[in-house]
Amino acid sequence: MIIKCEQENFKEIYDVINDAAIAYKGIIPADRWHEPYMTEEELKRQIDDGVQFWGYTEENKIIGVMGIQFKSDVTLIRHAYVRSNDRNKGIGGKLLKHLYSVASTPVLIGTWADAKWAIDFYLKHGFQLLPGTEVNSLLRKYWTIPARQIETSVVLASSTWKAKEPTV
């Protein structure tokens, strides 16, 4: 079952993210990896910045989380994680479909360029990988992430995304 996460779910969100993020260890640049992958303080900052988490539950336990953040003319999908033991069961797809259904603007997703499984997941669900010429400006405009992360990330977009035509 998909639920909107509340403050009382904070610890479970934190646990799911850090359990699942182990998949990045040795994949993303070493200077971007740390343990825990997301600190409690960073998770709180993300929530305070408007990321709304949704969870997938089984037996009253959250086993997958995905965040959504509404930013003026786009919707961002943020922090999509499924517990290590529960991967490849369609949980991420169910969460993505639900969040996509509540988005009223084009959806953008940023992820690590070397996280091929994540990119493949989003491509399988109808998102398109945007060209490098758009990526840096989009990451700077809609995300608050370090420059090093911008250098090593990609952006995927929903079919409703239309690149802005350059003004002359």
Structural commentary:
- With 168 residues, this protein is of the alpha+beta class.
- The chain has one domain (2-157): Aminopeptidase (3-Layer(aba) Sandwich).
- It is built from six helices and seven strands.
- The chain has a seven-stranded mixed beta sheet with strand order 1-2-3-4-5-7-6, sandwiched between helices.
- The longest helix has 12 residues, at 91-102.
- It starts with a strand and ends in an 11-residue tail after the last strand.
- The model has no long low-confidence stretch (mean pLDDT 95).
Task: Give a quick account of the main beta sheet: strands, pairing sense, barrel closure.
Answer: 7 strands, mixed
| Name of the CATH architecture | 3-Layer(aba) Sandwich
Question: CATH homologous superfamily, by name?
Answer: Gcn5-related N-acetyltransferase (GNAT)
What is the percentage of strand-forming residues?
Answer: 25-35%
Q: Write the element-wise H/E pattern from the N-terminal end onward.
A: EHHEEEHEHEHHE
Level-1 CATH class name: Alpha Beta
Order of neighbouring strands in the sheet with most strands: 1-2-3-4-5-7-6
Enumerate the spans where pLDDT stays under 50 for 5 or more consecutive residues. Answer: none
First-to-last CA distance: 49 Å
**Tally of contiguous helical segments:** 6
What gyration radius follows from the Cα positions, in whole Å? 15 Å
- Count of all domains: 1
Helix content: 25-40%
